[in-house]
Amino acid sequence: MFAADCQARVAFDLLAGTWNAVVLHTLRTGPQRPAELRARIGGISPKVLHETLRRLEFSGLLERRAYAAAPPRVEYGLTELGRSLLGPIEAMATWAYAHADEVLAAQERGEASA
Amino acid sequence: MFAADCQARVAFDLLAGTWNAVVLHTLRTGPQRPAELRARIGGISPKVLHETLRRLEFSGLLERRAYAAAPPRVEYGLTELGRSLLGPIEAMATWAYAHADEVLAAQERGEASA
């Protein structure tokens, strides 16, 4: 099922940048302005958020809407393609909540015996 | 649900290395020797496979078994923790088969208009 150049790698590469999944997940409730996203996502800088939004837009997962207001207003929202990725992201997050501590404990044991 | 230092990031970081998911998935049928894994996974070098196996072992997802034979034989197999990650990996791979082409098409359009 897996080969070096196969489609599955597209999905894992998409979620390789940790912030990609976090931004997609945070937009599940609807389009938001960058400032709103930053308030909801702890620890992301304006620069990293901007790069993540552009990367996800470039991959067809987000769409950018600009409103002619003073000052101009921009919102980002999930495309249908982006919304379809929320399921696998949820599966990963659910696994993480159940097992992240076991992974971290194994890594600590590994460091201690290194 | 997501914050900068939350557990979900452990999961996405684990699958950030594209080969991690491919190796875990290939081991779903049972323990295998590195040579068998390389034969099943197209495009992975011995060095990258070795690093991936050690990284997954370090995270508690794989276990390494050495057999006293001549020459010595080594196998890698999924731990229970590793097997529990196959579900989310399948969800990602299934999404990729359905949508990877749409992502690649969006990226090509983006490059064309850049």
TrEMBL record, chains A, B:
UniProt keywords, alphabetically: DNA-binding, Transcription, Transcription regulation
GO molecular function list: DNA binding
Domain HTH hxlR-type: 6-104
Classification via InterPro entries: HTH_HxlR (IPR002577), WH-like_DNA-bd_sf (IPR036388), WH_DNA-bd_sf (IPR036390)
Classification via SUPFAM superfamilies: Winged helix' DNA-binding domain (SSF46785)
Pfam families the UniProt entry points to: HxlR (PF01638)
Protein name: Helix-turn-helix transcriptional regulator
Species name: Streptomyces coryli
